[in-house]
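Q: What changes when guanosine-5'-triphosphate is included in the input?
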Amino acid sequence: MAPSFLLADRETHIYLTFSLTLKQESNMGSAPAKPEFLTVLAEKQVTHGQDIILSCQANTEDVTVSWEKDRQKLVCVEGKHKMDKTGKTCVLKISKAEDADEGNYTITLSNSSGSASCSAFVRILIKEWRTVEWSQGRMLNSLKTFKIGNEVEELRFLLYGPVGVGKSSIINTIRTIFEGRQFVNCLAAAGSTTSHTLCYEQFRFANEEGSFPFAFNDIMGAEKDSGVLTQDIVSALKGHMKEGYTFNPQIPLSESNHYYNKKPTLSDQMHCLVIVIPADRVSILDFMDKMKSVRGEASKMGIPQVVFMTRVDHACPLIRKNLQNVYKSKKIRENMHKCSNELGVPVNRVFPVLNYHEETHVNEDINCLMLDALTQITYWANDYVDQHTSHAQPICE
Ligand SMILES: Nc1nc2c(ncn2[C@@H]2O[C@H](COP(=O)(O)OP(=O)(O)OP(=O)(O)O)[C@@H](O)[C@H]2O)c(=O)[nH]1
Ligand SMILES: [Mg+2]
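A: The predicted holo structure follows.
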């Protein structure tokens, strides 16, 4: 009111103005800066037993912090989790990493002006449980100079598996390793649902120093109700199928066919069955029955059976980053055990491999993983041939 304002002396007026200013400042204090991250959480890969430290920096100290794991409020366990906030730095420490600690961690900063979140995935690596020599020289040399201890000239491997899982790419990869440059000569069209390989073909490997003592046979892929017939695989295993035969998914190779070898010898038959399963689709159960019956036939003949698990890069992001993580990946170990259980092949005969598929240059890690598997199966195939050498004439039926 005018009278009272007019009554106010100069000092009072100054005092009122001053108190308004104070009020404005304290209003600014109660409306803190909207939370933002100056630095965000980083993805972590830690081995069992290591401590995990997730940390980030907020733009203001005036925030409350909450943590979630896999979208559930993180339940702090005494001696396991420690949350800390010092100034603008927020830290979650997880002691002695174990499998259950793997997951997606989210931090949320909030205050009266809003909130902000960021997340990071924590992956727990298992201790490397199978070792690979990540230098190819020795393995390459020992395969180059491998002497088959008996009368066959070469060890023969049959590749068998569903359509489009990388059977032909295995041959290209092996050829790339031995011949030192990229090969794409027996590759299927990407993503096809019917087999691109239609003809029974054998691939040998050689470089300027000579040929390698093994051959791989590439065949049509298996499909649930079509594709290569189980009888044809058995014929190939026993050495009845001659190179160049074109598969007919309706009719098996018959004795009257020009491509039927009536009296196969030890040299004509297969010395190892390589079942090819993609690591990112181990549960292709539709095919498992077919594969089990082929495996059963190989067992009857005493032929060693192994599994090459291709496409490991698709099964685990860790491996996409670094192939040397292959035996540190839980996902790969799980899938190897799954393969082993489904097919009845012991885990020590399951080999994760990566094929050349998008690379334009030779990659020593890809080579080493394949060479490691190849070295093992060469010894097993040779053992088989050794055991059967004494009755080398018709070994089938
Ligand atoms: N990411 C990835 N792709 C692969 C790998 N191996 C093969 N491929 C790709 O998978 C597709 C099929 O590969 P192929 O080798 O032709 O498969 P296949 O088993 O011979 O196929 P069919 O003869 O048709 O039964 C191609 O596009 C390859 O580039 C691998 O290890 N990783
Ligand atoms: Mg093929």
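Observations recorded in class: Residues 167-168, 188, 196-197, 218 surround magnesium ion (ligand 2) (CB under 6 Å).
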